[in-house]
Design brief:
The protein has 318 residues and is mainly α. The chain has eleven helices and three strands. It is globular, with a radius of gyration of 24 Å. The N and C termini lie far apart (60 Å).
């Protein structure tokens, strides 16, 4: 009743400001009211079984705590230990910061929703998640490319390593990563923000993601889906191929060198390649084929927002 009174008052003010009500004005105003109805989104979550949700609550809480504390430990250790003041550990410290932020933007809300009956998120909160998700994903991709470049220079051009990977260069790589993330978000998020959301508000996922949210708009979103494929999908695929080529070149270079120290280099490269495959595979699967309605998408989303940050901690550093 209160909502109907508000609508009546708004329509009365509208007619007072425009004169006598006309058919066109009435239709236009009704459309504006309808398009502004969605104020929150309902998240389906991972499962409808309460027992499974409590188990996932405990599991995700432990993983999140280990991820945050472990990556903080890496950052503090890298900062306080003079022997770790090298380009690779500088990049790893920045990667740890990104992992903490990536895990924190959605995981706490996801953990709380597992024990809530009604899993909702406000409109502004949903698009804040979209902004952070796509920006941080792009930053992490560029940092992984920077780590591959660092290993390429260290192995293929060892005598020029400190000259090429100077303090200026490593800071430049990090700044370029963040600028690329902001550019990536700026190219596609405005399309989603300007979409009219007037009815459906159920997101079949654990958090807001662009392919799923854009499908809820009250208009044809084919162009937006194409933008997602061209931007997020192709970006993920391109970086993934660049990294595979880079590590292939490094491996061929190692084989031509002497066998001294090869085991350590192989173990380092194995760790890097493992993280690359685990991080990029879900991103490529979700964003290169956004038109499909795979039930595994939400589990892949969990993987690269909750599992990947702790895998970076375990594989890269330890």
């Amino acid at each position: 009743m209160k909502k109907l009174c508000c609508v009546h008052d708004l329509s009365h003010l509208f007619f007072l400001s425009t004169g006598h009500p006309k058919a066109g004005s009435m239709a236009e105003f009704s459309e504006q009211l309808n398009q502004s109805q969605v104020s929150e989104f309902i998240l389906v979550g991972l499962t409808s079984f309460k027992d499974a949700e409590f188990i996932l609550f405990a599991l995700f809480l432990v993983i999140y705590a280990v991820t945050v504390l472990g990556n903080l430990l890496i950052m503090v250790t890298e900062f306080l230990t003079p022997n770790l003041n090298t380009p690779m550990y500088f990049l790893l410290g920045n990667l740890s910061f990104v992992d903490i932020t990536l895990a924190s933007f959605a995981t706490p809300k996801m953990i709380v929703n597992l024990v809530k009956h009604k899993k909702t998120t406000f409109f502004a909160s949903c698009f804040t998640q979209l902004f952070l998700l796509h920006m941080l994903d792009d930053v992490e991709m560029l940092l992984l490319v920077s780590l591959a470049y660092d290993r390429y220079v260290a192995i293929c051009k060892p005598l020029c390593y400190m000259t090429i990977m100077s303090n200026k260069m490593r800071v430049l790589l990090v700044v370029m990563s963040w600028c690329s993330g902001l550019l990536h978000v700026g190219l596609q998020l405005p399309f989603a923000v300007n979409l009219p959301f007037c009815g459906p508000n159920v997101v079949d996922s654990i958090f807001c993601d662009l392919p799923l949210v854009s499908k809820l708009a009250c208009t044809d979103t084919y162009f937006v889906q194409i933008v997602i494929v061209a931007n997020s999908g192709m970006l993920s695929m391109s970086f993934f191929l660049i990294l595979l080529i880079s590590y292939s070149v490094i491996l061929m270079t190692i084989r031509r060198c002497s066998t001294m120290g090869q085991s350590k280099v192989y173990s380092t490269l194995t760790a890097h390649v493992t993280v690359v495959i685990l991080f990029f595979s879900p991103c490529i699967f979700i964003y290169v084929w956004p038109f499909s309605n795979h039930s595994v998408d939400k589990f892949l989303a969990v993987f690269y927002t909750i599992i990947t940050p702790i895998l970076n901690l375990l594989i890269y550093t330890l």
